[in-house]
């Protein structure tokens, strides 16, 4: 799936001042021609990058004209300073053709304009489409005759953009420095472009969320980002960023979950700044996080049982970049729009990839993952364990107690396997599937022979605790397991399946309720 850019309802409400202008996504009037939001953002970023990066106000005026004017824009644009007596204009920079004295005489007094940026009133033909941006500071006043802002006909958005750029331009003229607001705006807009681009790519819902979180982490100057469901039993929806070794990743996930639980609590206590909950080392220690994470920040998405927490992390204690809070706040609105669509798509995808009775992965999904994980093990010179489980005397259970009991046993066996995987901190990487009938299989990448054997024993013990109704020859369910491991017992995916199946047959033949390793 791909996720369209959120509409204006997903963004923050109108911003309080010009420095927060970029917090709103592209909004296109119904009467305007279709505008590609990603292209519009990229064009606006090109302007901001010029403001931040180009030295000299004269070069900057020309660059802004070249970027924004286009073929349909005004033939000339200029940065003008009002003479001390107000009787004339002093041209301080020009883009396009030089502005004639006759045209200069038609320009409005900047002190009498009603808005900080607006289309030029009654423009002469050479300034058709131009905007007037009044400027002041340093005891001087001026006017930027600007091109039409590249905001797809959204006049309000264009006004906010030109106010910000105009202030930076005037500040460059007066002090030779760009406003820090322009730098922050550029950082946020870069983040928006990155997230919109990531959302536009095709992929499974989980892959889309992972890609978005990776882009967010980079944009915020963090090492990782994660999305968790709300509540005391918050569950990780997706995470991305710096790769961690498996044992370290498990501990990091526990720390992240603690922070996710703390986010709504701190919001309720008013321990936030504009909706952002920050965790320095002292705040981390208060929730029991004393390693791996040195700094974090979070924003809540939605509320109540359906809400979620969006978090970013870094391992050292240095503060996050100045723009990180604003970027995270905007991302909260972005994910609030994206998450329900991903959730809906994921539910449909999950139904297509899950066994209807047990909830485990179905045979098709298992075959796909076996191919993928096996290729990964070969590429990384890792290992891949395959457990094949068969419930002992299952036909007898159906014959004695009926198919309803048989279905209940299969469900409980599947739940026991899932619980064993979660308890072993392997739930994020392992795959449990219904292979067919009463056969269940588990894929364990990079667990080694000893680790796979431990999980196999946990599964055997858990299934042995499933009780059967009275009146039959057995009181509890048991299972036989065959274990095979690449690269020790097989050299390709098909032979790995055959080796596990042969080991399972040996477990059955050897008395059942046991684990047999291939080879």
Automatic annotation (TrEMBL):
Pfam families referenced in this protein's UniProt entry, alphabetically: GGDEF
Enzyme Commission designation: 2.7.7.65
Region annotation Disordered: where it falls in the sequence: 1-34
Catalysis performed (reactions): 2 GTP = 3',3'-c-di-GMP + 2 diphosphate
GO-annotated molecular function: diguanylate cyclase activity
Keywords: Nucleotidyltransferase, Transferase
Sequence ranges assigned to domain GGDEF in this UniProt record: 382-519
Ranges of compositional bias, category Low complexity: 1-14
NCBIfam families: GGDEF (TIGR00254)
Protein name: diguanylate cyclase
